[in-house]
Amino acid sequence: xxxxxxxxxxxxxxxxxPEQDPAIPCRQAGLRFKRGDxxxxxxxxxxxxxxxxxxxxxxxxxxVCKSERCVTGISFTTAGLRRSFRLGRRGSGSGSVEENxxxxxxxxxxxxxxxxxxTYLEVCWPEGVGLSELKRRLLISDPDHFGVPVPxxxxxxxxxxxxxxxxxxxxxxxxxxxxxNHRFIEYGHHRGNYYGTSLDSVRxxxxxxxxxxxxxxxxxxxxxxxxxxxxxxxFVKPPSIGELRFSRRKAKFFATKETKPxxxxxxxxxxxxxxxxxxxxxxxxxxxxRVLVNGDIVSAFNELRAELRRLETEQPQWIxxxxxx
Length: 325
Ligand code: 5GP
Hints:
The chain is an alpha+beta fold. Helices cover 28% and strands 18% of the residues. It is built from eight helices and 14 strands. It has helices at 68-72, 130-141, 172-180, 199-207, 221-224, 241-257, 267-284, 297-313; strands at residues 9-12, 38-43, 49-54, 63-66, 107-110, 120-124, 146-147, 152-153, 168-169, 184-190, 193-198, 211-212, 234-237, 290-293. Helix 2 packs across helix 8. The longest helix has 18 residues, at 267-284. The structure holds guanosine-5'-monophosphate. Guanosine-5'-monophosphate binds at residues 1, 89, 91, 93, 95-99, 151, 155, 186-188, 190, 195-197.
């Protein structure tokens, strides 16, 4: 999730050109896409036309595209929307700074069953892989040294949760005031509630003398890219498709030998991971100080630890001129 973003993401399974669509109410407002693009559905309140935008564009313009119902010609009531179009969420995140959007790890959820032609496929960002797993391992490895910010939410506190531990539980009004006052690095909605990570929560971690770990979508880095925070930005990217296939085979082998299978990725997932990592790199590469290839989690983790040790011992380091003085 990220600022103002809906939680429904789809991979398109057909090409769409509004210029060629006689039914569209306003061609200029149409959103052109190619099969395989990832779209964020900004609004699906209208049965026939959705508002969507291309995921990952720096200034993505929302446009109109046909709804699933409109493409298939099948009429669904809201309750009858296929499961694949249930609102889903992207996982990953610093305590889930998700957003960010988020990108390299879109995961196929399910192809809807009932309709004749494939239209859209809901995709999400899987948890427990890649970046958030690295963050988790770092935290466990040295909890006195690393910390994560406590996010804010407007949802009800659950049994056993404590204020300021899992979340800061605040009213909607307080949350919205914080949005207006630009207190959040990012925020999003989930099941009718707001979630977000504030700049103050990062300050709190650093004030405790800890290294604050955050996994953010690249479009939010600018919020932290200041002399105050001096972030070290590391881009964790997937390995080659060959290595991904190999690790899937390895995982299957171990799963049958020892444990239950966990997550299995399909070929399309790998293509999505690599495609979106490339898009991210080309748009935001100038902000990344280091690229870490996450082929195998143990080696990636060891490399990350070594890199952080080097950073903390090697002084001084190069910084942007505007942070100096
Ligand atoms: P839960 O209510 O079950 O604790 O969390 C619901 C969802 O909110 C999870 O997907 C979680 O990752 C997400 N979430 C938690 N903290 C944040 C945050 O700081 N920002 C955003 N955008 N999402 C968050």
